[in-house]
Amino acid sequence: MKRRVVAIVLSLVMALGLSFSMTSCGGNGGSDDANTLTIWIHNNEDSWVQSYQDIADAYMAEHEGVNIKFESFPYDEFETKVQTALMSKDGGADIYELWGGWGVDFAPSGALAALPDEWAEEVKSDAYPSTYGALESDGKLYGMPMEFNIECGGLVINNNVLTANGLSVPKTWDEVVAAGVKANSEDVKGFDFVNWDGVMYLWTSMILSQGGNYLNEDGTFNLTSPEAVKAWNELADLLTKTPVTNLAGLDDGSDIEGYQECFAGQAMMVPRGPWCLAEGVNDYGHELGKSLLYVPMPFYGDKPGFAAETGWSMGVASGISEEKQALAFDFLQFFFSDDVIMQHNLACGQIPAKKSVAQDPAFVEAFAPAEPLVGILDDSQFIGFFNTDRFKENVNNTFSAFCKGEAGSTEEALADLEAQCNDMLK
User: How far is CA 385 from each of CA 105, 136, 221, 369, 391, rounded to the nearest angstrom?
Assistant: First the structure.
């Protein structure tokens, strides 16, 4: 999965006056007390941890006798701990913070309790399909989506680099390419889409915006269509013929992300979700709307189209008592209410999973970076019920080899890539 870094809440969100008070704690799993809920979360993002505690405090204030406690862990430990607990279906927490992509493995496994049918239908009627796609199995939902995980549609721009090159904000795909070519140099990447998420998301968006699809109706991969070939060649040309960036984002083994290079003036434009902007403001000293811009990313084809994977979610353990499951789902329904989930999304710099919240003018007013995105959310499709990390790895490895002349012709490279990706479905 993609490890997300949101260091501190944007100052414009802090202006809402949200109060935070949580400290992390340790422990050995859920309590036998039917009125106590234990929730496992990771503690890499302080604002998320604090928001969870605020929401729990508000719920406990309305439900005398209920105790909600959090056990928080560093991300790497958290990922292993959660997946081990879910595989064993024994012990652990009552509620888990889940990366949505884990749902592909655990929604069908019996490790998570299905949402009550009536509430599940409400979630599906008001949430964007990509936000719960990986949480659905046999018509039931096994988690509550908290966000719309969007990595395509917004463009992070270092305005200092843009203006130093005599450029203005690009409005079309051709303008993005021309600006990227002009700014690209040994010291600065012009348009840096080459990273773990970027190649796959941009390529699939280019296919979809041409009216094609990277999936067949049965869910298998179709990576050799005319639209896929055209988009692949165009992306490769942006490294080999009219370079706008280089392969370092895939090949140099660095932990530095493209958006961080953009903040540091080492890249001019990077397609990315809005979650990264807080780091640019708080850690790099940028001012959003001045030295740092977040604008709509022009689509390659004639229509908007992009893929999105299921993001952060909450799931209830299947092994706890019915009484405790009922309490856990009651808390999550409170969490999912419009006002509460909006507070959480604002605190975490996230786009809401719920249409009613994402399209609320109050949300965009409070979180300006959402403005380029909320109008295109309906143009997305769920990425597919498969391991997205393996898909990205296959795409990235093939793309890197192709750009180095090590993967044969376009037709050969994409036929091999299609076979690799279909093999991972077996």
Answer: 10, 9, 11, 29, 11
pTM: predicted TM-score of the whole model, two decimal places: 0.90
DSSP count for the chain of H helices, then E strands? 20, 15
**Could you tell me if 419 and 275 lie in one domain?**
yes
Alpha-carbon distance 179 to 160, whole Å?
14
CA–CA–CA angle 360, 366, 368 (5° rounding): 95
CB 67 within 8 A of CB 59: no
**Do residues 374 and 398 both lie within one domain?**
no
Which ranges constitute the DSSP H helices of 369-409?
371-374, 388-403
pLDDT tens sequence across 297-329? 999 999 999 999 999 999 999 999 999 999 999
207 and 67 co-located in one domain: no
Instruction: Mark whether 241 and 216 lie in a shared domain.
Output: yes
DSSP annotation string for 177-222: HHHHHHH--SS-EEE---STTHHHHHHHHHHHHTT--SB-TTS-B-
Same structural domain, 125 and 229 = no
- With contact defined as beta carbons under 8 Å apart, do 6 and 278 qualify? yes
Q: Are the C-beta atoms of 284 and 161 separated by less than 8 Å?
A: no
Inter-helix orientation angle 410-423/226-240, to 10°: 120
| In a shared domain, residues 212 and 285 | yes
Is residue 156 within 8 Å of residue 279, measured between CB atoms?
no
Domain that holds residue 300: 154-307+386-423
Q: 252 or 126, which is more confident?
A: 126
DSSP state at residue 319: T
Residues 280 and 410 in one domain: yes
Q: Are 147 and 311 in contact (CB under 8 A)?
A: yes
Element at 154 (helix H, strand E): strand 154-158
The string of DSSP letters for 109-141 reads TTSBPPPPHHHHHHHHHHB-HHHHGGGEETTEE
Nearest to 342 by CA among 328, 331, 356: 356
pLDDT of 16 reads: 35
pLDDT in tens, 362-393: 999 999 999 999 999 999 999 999 999 999 99
397 and 314 within one domain: no
